[in-house]
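Hey L., structure's done. Input below.
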Amino acid sequence: MAPLPEFLTFAAVGVFAQLVDGALGMAYGVVSAAMLLGLGLPPALASASVHYAETFTCGASGISHLLAGNVRRRLFWSLVIPGVIGAVIGAYVVSHVPATWMRLVLTPYLLGTGIFLLLRNFRGGGRPSNDAPRSPPPLGLVAGFADAMGGGGWSALTVTTLVARGATPRMVIGTVHLAKCVVSAAASVSFLLHMGAPHGTAVLGLICGGVTAAPLGALFARKVSPRAATLLAATAVLGLGLNNVVKAFY
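Output:
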């Protein structure tokens, strides 16, 4: 593929992935990593490239959410510190060990959480709190590790868990995005040390597309009702889980 068409392809993927991610708080890494894998990049190189791009796209998205009032400081710190530790460990592992088994580990969690959110949404659940709760201590660690291993999963794990605990979806989404910027930067440094430079055209295209779409995703998240955002998040997580099931039997 010629450089310009290749760049435009990755930019388009970055726009689409960032709009979905900005509204739901998840799927940027999953969509981007799947695209890179489809082009033949090894899993470790695909994950590294996505994290380089996410350092910029999540930074733009996180700042947009901060300006829109969608960030809670206490939740941010309870996610970012263990998240960085998990990402550094995960980047080291994926640089030396195949990541296929990680999909099997995450699949039951994704399916169970998606079903729980759907049931909670249809039953009405409790009223979400305007002040997002502190993250459970293992959550950031596990999410950071899983995200570095598979190229995505940070938001799927953190957003669904926190929304299920009664937090307002837009506050969770905004805070998770800002934390993801720091976690991605830590993973990127680890990948750089273990693997060297990533796929340059892919990273540049993903960055340009994602940064362009970040403000629109933040505004969309502010307008979507908590019930609708919960339903969309549950659908996305179920889709990720079912996709892993299909791959396991393919």
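The chain is about 80% helix and 0% strand. The CA atoms of residues 25 and 170 lie 8 Å apart.

-- N.
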